[in-house]
User: Fold this.
Amino acid sequence: MTTQPRTLTEAEHRASQRRNALAATLAHLRQRALAYVFVCLWTFFTIFTVLWVIMTSFKTSRELFRDVWALPTELQWANYEKAWSVVHMDRYFFNSVLVVSASVVLILLLSAPASYALSRFEFRGRTC
Assistant:
């Protein structure tokens, strides 16, 4: 005696679809959760590093070598004065502003005509 395979009722079919959708959603959430954990850890690391550099910049050399992780006992603004005058930080700052300004102008001069050409002209490989 052979048995016929049982066909699913409409309600069973909908329940099966919901289970499949739920499993897909959970898999997607697991992937996203790992990405969010990585991004949060990276953000914490970056913020911690920047704050540590700022905090350390206000220390004297003696405080820095005595305890790297301690807060400065007194803010040393002389470190910034020394960096600005002795190390010629003003020249470096001006050079950075000059290079960034020239780069922005050059990028705008090249990207505006290129974007116009890419949006108006038909060429092989264009998707829409």
